[in-house]
Specification:
7 strands, 250 residues, single chain, Beta-Lactamase, 2 domains, Multidrug-efflux Transporter Regulator, Chain: A, Domain 2
Length: 250
């Protein structure tokens, strides 16, 4: 039978607390075996984790998908979007989505279903990353809807951002809206009537609700930052362990 480590032994080896171990079990980063009421961890799995740390270290530092546990982030984003009644997505600084869109309105779903529409949305999200304000500030996207972003910063660098919106800040002029919708429909090869009907369902959010959404976004982003820092610190520990033990393996 393979050597099994206790939870306490794993804590001492990786220099992490018991709560972090249980979180890693929950999101799939660790595989454990239940022995009665206790968890045991195959030593060969931990050795493989340590051995691979140096190889993946550079990717973890630069790739937000490696830094952020997407399986943990997605359900939190889903709940936030449903409660706030906005569409939301977590993206890299270049606007490329890291998660699937949550609570998308019909209008944006039609745009995102086309290659050109999706690229236009990504370009709008990328523009949000360039805003100098640290706190969320709402802006108008390519389709005329309001969006904002909250930074996810790790080690002083923006690694990702929570984007939320898909609403109007004021009731639109219907004639102007129809002109804009027809232009979008032609540009992205969408049925004009279908897009127009979907535009009629876009919600209008007042200043008070907009400020509340911005506050919630910051809290969500702070939570994601915590996840990212925890993972980054863990990988740094694993790299140090790998560097210390490498001569012994040779």
């Amino acid at each position: 039978m393979a050597d099994l480590l206790t939870t306490k032994q794993l804590q001492e080896l990786l220099k992490i607390d018991r709560t972090t171990i249980y979180r890693m079990l929950g999101d799939g980063r660790l595989k454990g075996i239940r022995v009665g009421n206790q968890w045991r961890f195959p030593k060969e799995q931990i050795d493989a984790l340590v051995s691979g740390a140096k190889e993946i270290g550079a990717d973890v530092a630069g790739d937000p998908k490696e830094v952020l546990p997407i399986k943990c982030i997605q359900p939190i984003q889903d709940v936030f979007a449903e409660i706030a009644q906005v569409g939301s997505v977590t993206t890299a600084p270049d606007g490329i989505p890291l998660t699937r869109m949550s609570n998308t309105c019909a209008f944006c779903s039609l745009l995102l279903a086309t290659d050109s529409g999706r690229q236009a949305c990504i370009a709008s999200w990328r523009t949000l990353a360039t805003h100098p304000d640290h706190r969320p500030r709402f802006a108008t996207c390519h389709a005329g809807l309001h969006y904002a972003r909250a930074r996810i910063e790790i080690d002083g660098q923006i690694k990702a951002m929570v984007v939320a919106g898909q609403f109007y800040a004021a009731h639109p002029d219907r004639s102007e809206e129809q002109v804009r919708v027809r232009s979008l429909a032609r540009l992205h090869h969408i049925d004009a009537k279908e897009l127009s009907d979907a535009a009629g369902e876009i919600p209008v959010v007042d200043d008070r609700k907009e400020a509340q959404i911005g506050s919630w976004m910051e809290k969500i982003a702070n939570t994601f930052e915590h996840f990212g820092r925890e993972r980054s610190e863990l990988m740094s520990r694993l790299q140090r362990i790998a560097e210390i033990t490498a001569p012994q393996r040779r």
